[in-house]
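Researcher: We're teaching a course module on how sequence relates to structure. For the next exercise, students receive a sequence and then see the predicted structure as tokens, so they can try to spot secondary structure elements on their own. Here is the exercise chain.
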Amino acid sequence: DIPIVPSILCSGATDEGRQAGLPHSTMATNDLRPTRVQDLNLRLRTASLSEVEWMVGLAGKEGWNPGADDAVAFRPADPDGFFVATAPASAGQNVQSASAGATAGTSEDGQGCVVEDSASDAVAAISVVVHDETFAFLGFFITVEQLRGQGIGTALWTHALAHAGRRTVGLDGVAAQEAWYARVGFVRTGATRRFSGPFSVVDDDAMMAGQPGRWVTRDLTPADVEPLLALDAAACGYRRKRFLESWLSPEKSRRTVVLADLTGYATIRSCRSGCKIGPIVAPSDEAGLELIAAACRRIPAAELHVDVAPGADGFAEALKARGLVETYTTARMYRGEPPKQTAALLAIGSMELG
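Model: And here is the predicted structure for the students to work with:
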């Protein structure tokens, strides 16, 4: 561990991150309320897989409804982009109960240092996933409820943001935190809107039957991945190769469908409540709806959740027409120049990774 300020320490990059050529930072972190943070003997470090699983579980407790296999799918996007703040249970009586239940162990960080591989004393989390040389996305910014308001999140935020370097950083911020994000340099450019409800494949078939030019869909094949990487980059305005190579890998809880001409795709995954579909990239709102129907045939869902991309207002109206209801809205904010997103991006992949 590398000293940052008294009682605040951090660890280095993971082996996976070094092999992928990803950056990591050992910049000093100065908390706005150092006395209270120091009382906790806080450590800031890169998260292990078990800790990313803990982060997903923490998000579930906050009502974010994560996917069944999100941790395993998210982490390969940037193994050095997930961070935790830890404090020994002796530093505060609520620490142990707040973070109990995670697995523990030890590992070497590749530089001869022993790094704790445990979420049993984790008290806060954040991710800053570097997608390419221009863009990173921030998510999982959570402090356990018992220890909020003590500067822990601020310390971890500062440490983690350094990982992005000079890249633009995006996030989907809840309303309660939007003003704080604005104070630290993030600018709102739009909103990500979640639509939820049943989506009847039978009704979709009836509505689309006989319509000229109905879109043909099929399952993703390995040969489709490279073309989809280019399609996705054009739609998003940045490349997220590592994330998509993991995300598009079929699992029992996650499947991807494509338009037969490879002008669109969508991924569905089982979540704690119902299923989420995203990303959805398609040449039209109608094609997006057809991808949803195809995805729901692979993994049926009593309740469907779609996080409509900022600016995709026509698609939002199409979902409303199918009976889905807007249930949740976040502010899409950026620090730096926003990526040049196109109308083909109908739904984001997740509010944690963009």
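Model: If you want an answer key for the exercise: The CA atoms of residues 187 and 333 lie 5 Å apart. The longest helix spans residues 285-298.
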